[in-house]
Amino acid sequence: MPAKKKPSNKPPTSAELVKEACRRIRLARSLWDAHKNAACRAERAKAMELYERLTHEQREQVPEQLRVWLRYRSEKYFGDHTTPPGG
To answer: CB burial class (10 A; 0-12, 13-18, 19+) of residue 81?
Structure first.
């Protein structure tokens, strides 16, 4: 079994934030394609939280395909007009 990594106390750099946001969006998209809606909703929320922390310049570093997917899914399927899960 590999050794566990020690948590870092330093704040993430801008490149790390962009990379993590992209990873979260890709994961949410793969969960969406697999019809795992609850997991997709949770992962999308984490991705949106990271994406909202990015500056305009950092958001431009996120591939356009991921930004479009996040915006489209956010408005169409996860907006305020939809019924919340379990309701």
So the answer is: exposed
The phi and psi torsions of 46 (rounded to 5 degrees) equal: -65, -40
**∠ CA 14-18-24, rounded to 5°:** 140
How crowded is residue 41: how many other Cβ atoms within 10 Å of its Cβ? 17
pTM for this model (two decimals):
0.76
Cα separation, 29 vs 35, whole angstroms: 10
How far, in Å, are 18, 47, 66, 71 from residue 26 at the CA level? 12, 9, 7, 13
How far is 28 from 78, CA to CA, in rounded Å?
13
When pLDDT is averaged across residues 25-49 and rounded to a whole number, the result is 91
